[in-house]
Every structure is written in structure tokens, then in C-alpha cells.
Amino acid sequence: MATGVxxxxxxxxxxxxxxxxxxxxxxxxxxxxxxxxxxxLTTVTTTIVVSPDGTGHSRTVQGAVDMVPDGNSRRIKxxxxxxxxxxxxxxxxxxxxxxxxxxxxxxxxxxxxSRASDVDATTGRQxxxxxxxxxxxxxxxxxxxxxxxxxxxxxxxxGAVGQQAVALRLSGDKTMLYRCRILGTQDTxxxxxxxxxxxxxxxxxxxxxxxxxxxTLYQGCTLHAVATSYGAIAASQRSSPSEESGFSFVGCRLxxxxxxxxGRAWGxxxxxxxxxxxxxxxxxxxxxxxxxxxxRTKTVLxxxxxxxxxxxSTKQRVPWSRTLTYEEARPFIGRSFINGEQWxxx
Length: 346
Hints:
Blueprint: H1 3-15, E1 26-27, E2 47-50, H2 61-67, E3 76-80, E4 83-86, E5 89-91, E6 98-101, E7 108-112, E8 135-137, E9 143-145, E10 148-151, E11 168-170, E12 175-178, E13 181-183, E14 189-191, E15 195-199, E16 202-205, E17 207-212, E18 215-219, E19 222-236, E20 246-250, E21 253-264, E22 271-275, E23 288-289, E24 301-305, E25 322-323, H3 326-333, E26 344-345
Parallel strand pairs: 1-26, 2-3, 3-6, 4-7, 5-8, 6-9, 7-10, 8-11, 9-12, 10-13, 11-14, 12-15, 13-16, 14-17, 15-18, 16-19, 17-19, 18-20, 19-21, 20-22, 21-23, 22-24, 24-25
InterPro entries: Pectin_lyas_fold (IPR012334), Pectin_lyase_fold/virulence (IPR011050), Pectinesterase_Asp_AS (IPR033131), Pectinesterase_cat (IPR000070)
Keywords: Aspartyl esterase, Cell wall, Hydrolase, Secreted, Signal
Organism: Leersia perrieri
């Protein structure tokens, strides 16, 4: 079927559905495709199929995203068949309610190789960390499942200038990722702004491989370090006590190599909490970094609650980090941390 015809059909069907059908909640249904849907390419559908062999509606992921009409008001599922999709993908703010659904993290891979220091051919300027992302999501109510997002740029020395290489940037509100892999080294996941829920995901990197100013709950995730020397898991950018941003890791597991900080104080009011996590021995005994600014030790909130593993000992932690009580940790443990009762029905 010609791409132009599919675009017209999809647009017509979507606008025939009222905004009320979209709802204001993300459910498990938004993260899955009924069995056989990828084989039945009907003319009345809100499932767009991506296949590199041309048997779907689009050969590229970006081509499928482009089929979604601006201002759509209901869930549109993009089923991405097995393949390595070597492209940059952007889901703009004008296209909410999009789901990217893969067929397994080892089978559906979106990968690109931009670094912050790369020069954009159009502008002649460096792309910067923000635009180095292999996949950039700027729309609300975005979902992804069973996909690998990768930045395949070669690993650089820890902290090397201009070598930031983002695999995934999340800049929309009310986002959920389930069983996804996010792979890179320096600055892998740009958790930029908005409220996000990452459940049973794998995130790989070396230094500040989760960073930004979002408010995000990471539950049951594997954090895999590939550092060859020192590194850090999280860098929260929170710069004011009035900001509700921060990162909460609950029931996560740390594996890998190097010597890692649990977090670094990118922002003056940086906020990172680990609860019920299994921390390997690659955590440096002091645990946390003030980013070279001692004044931040008075304003950050770096906390740990009921973690286990050889890296969980708090005996040598920096004195300005906190071993939390249950009452102190409770606001960070559940989905209420991200107002999940307002947009998640799982």
C-alpha cells in the first residue's frame, strides 16, 4: 500500500474518534499489540506497522511517526518489526498519545551515533548534548515497550569534552517505558523534563548516564555501568527548592564495572533517592559527589533507604547524604512521587 494512501486513511480514522476516547491515563493496553495485528494491515486501523522489508506502512520509524497527525487525540500504536533501524527519531510535541512497540529488545533496535561535538551539516554548528539523542520524545503520553534505544558512538574517556552521546531524550510529560533497553556511555538517558515512569528497563552507561531535571520513578530497573575508571549513575539538575523534579530508584539493581557515584549534584538542589536497591561493590564508599561545589552539600537531598549488596554500606558515606527512615523515604517509593494516580492505570 502506498505511504500517502495509508497516511490519509490513518488521519481520517483518528479524527473520527473523539478526544474523550483517548482518556487521560496510560494502561497496559497502550504498551501492547493484539496477537496478529502486525500481519493484518487493515484500512481501518490506528496501528502503524514499521518493517524494513517494505511489508508495513513504513520502512523507517520516523516515517511512521510522521504519519501521526498533529494534535491527535487518541492512542496510536507504532509496531516496529524486528530489525536494526539506523536513524534519528523525533516525536514532536504536536503528536501526543504515541506508543512505540517493539518485538523484543534483542530484535527491535533504534540506533544512531551522534556526539555533542558533531557538526550539523545544515547549521555548521555543534549539535550539543540536547540534539545528540538517537531518539527524542517531546510529546505527552508517550509509551514504549520491548525496544532498544542506542547511541553507538564509541566510548570516550570519562568526562571528555564534547563526547556526550544521548541514546534517548525524554522531554514530554506523562511518559512510560516498559522493558526497554537504553544503551550508551556518557549521558545515555537525558531525562530532561516531565513526569516519567520506567519499569523493568535496562539502562547502560558510564558517567552521568541518567541526567536531567525530570521527576522520574525507576522501578525494577537494571543499571549497568560500563565505566573503565570512575563514573556516576545519576545527575539531577534540580536548581530550586520549588522544583518537584528528582530521580527515585526503587527495587533497582546495579551491575557492571568501574567505580561509581550514586549521584552527582548537577543542580544546587539535586535530589536522588535509592530505596530497596541491590548495589554492587562498584559504588565508591563515599557514595555521592557535590560536583566540586561544597555549597551544594547544604541543599541537595541524596538519600538511601533499605538497600542491600556490597555497595550499600553507608558507613563511609559523605556526611551530607542521608540514610532515610521509612517515613522519609515513603514519598519517593510509590507512583505518587510522579502523581501516577492522575495518569497511570496499571
